[in-house]
Design a protein that fits this description.
The chain is mainly beta and about 350 residues long. The strands form seven sheets. A four-stranded antiparallel sheet has the order 1-3-6-5. It has a four-stranded mixed sheet with strand order 2-8-7-4.
């Protein structure tokens, strides 16, 4: 019985003495978020065999010498701190120390800073690099920005029907107060300015007609002019040209040109212009001589007839005692000899 007690006391005395001689210091190391190295010092009896273990994939603890533990650690990509445990152990003894790594500074980057897109509807993307959770919002109703995954923003946009370009802002807000704003710049559609139809054909009688103006320019300022005295073209409203014309008394058709142009303001240079025409038919040919008959006395003398016509005319007679001549464009002069017969 005494022998057993002595063994127990001896074992206890050996462990207590070993624990008194075995120490790892410091108990903990605090390191930055960047990758790096640190060390712990080990105090143990000479020729004492001890080992080291770690419990984290981002950290490696190795026995550099009988008195030093070297620790290398990777950068911490998260904003949250993390802790690894290192166990130093030998026969009958064990000690655990820690490495506490700080979290990384929050960062958020969106690229590119701007996307230029055409006037047609479509889609584009932005790439996000961040170590925090984030959300996305947009500033325009014609554009929609969505978070596709942790590193990608998808953007869809409507067609721009205006000739003026437009810009939308996409805001990416990250946890921890980080934020970045990027832009989508959409070009305007090509401007058009058109008057239709290109020509109007009208009858010879007096009347009126219209032309229509179409454009995608907002609040257009335009002017209309004509080049004929028998026709008047006016701006009836923002989209209509009204035309009035006199009767054409000639048998020949006639054409007037109407010029429509848009200057850069009341005194500016001409930006857009178009010319249309009105062609008026000639009147039907007519010829009227009045009166139908003249009665004259037996004595020689003269008389006249009146001519109303819209054509060129000539006159002839069928008697030797009478001569009919064209006095002017509207008169026939007739001279006759005395009638000596009863």
């Amino acid at each position: 019985m005494k022998r057993i007690i002595l063994v127990v006391i001896a074992t206890f005395s050996f462990s207590t003495a070993l624990l008194a001689q075995f120490d790892v210091s410091p108990d903990s190391r605090s390191v930055s978020a960047e990758a790096g190295t640190t060390s712990f010092s080990v105090s143990a009896p000479v020729d004492y065999k001890w080992a080291v273990e770690d419990n984290a994939s981002w950290l490696t603890a190795t026995l550099t010498s009988t008195t030093v533990i070297s620790v290398s650690y990777e950068a911490n990509p998260s904003t949250s701190s993390r802790t690894a445990y290192i166990k130093v152990s030998g026969p009958g003894v064990e000690e655990i120390v820690t490495v506490i790594q700080a979290g990384a500074t929050a960062y958020l980057d969106v690229s590119p800073n701007n996307r230029d897109v055409s006037s047609e509807s479509g889609s584009t993307t932005f790439v996000v690099s961040a170590n925090v959770d984030w959300s996305v919002t947009e500033s325009a109703s014609w554009l929609n920005a969505t978070k596709i995954d942790r590193s990608l923003i998808g953007v869809t946009y409507d067609a721009n029907t205006s000739v003026v370009g437009r810009t939308a802002y996409v805001t990416v807000q990250g946890a921890g107060g980080v934020q970045e704003v990027v832009t989508v710049c959409q070009s305007g559609v090509a401007a058009y300015f058109d008057v239709s139809p290109d020509s109007r054909s009208v009858s010879s009688t007096a009347g009126s007609t219209t032309f229509s103006l179409s454009t995608n320019i907002t609040n257009p300022f335009w002017i209309v002019e004509d080049n004929a005295t028998w026709l008047t073209a006016t701006k009836t409203n923002e989209n209509t040209i009204g035309v009035t014309y006199n009767a054409n008394t000639s048998t020949s058709p006639r054409t007037a040109s109407i010029n429509v142009f848009m200057p850069d303001g009341p005194e500016g240079e001409i930006l857009y212009s178009e010319t249309v025409t009105v062609t008026q038919a000639g009147a039907a040919a007519y010829l009227d001589v009045t009166p139908d008959s003249r009665s004259v006395g037996a004595a020689s003398g003269s008389t006249t007839f009146s001519v109303s016509t819209n054509v060129t005319w000539s006159v002839a007679d069928d008697a030797t005692w009478l001569t009919a001549t064209k006095t002017d464009g509207s008169t026939i002069g007739v001279s006759y000899n005395a009638n000596t017969s009863t």
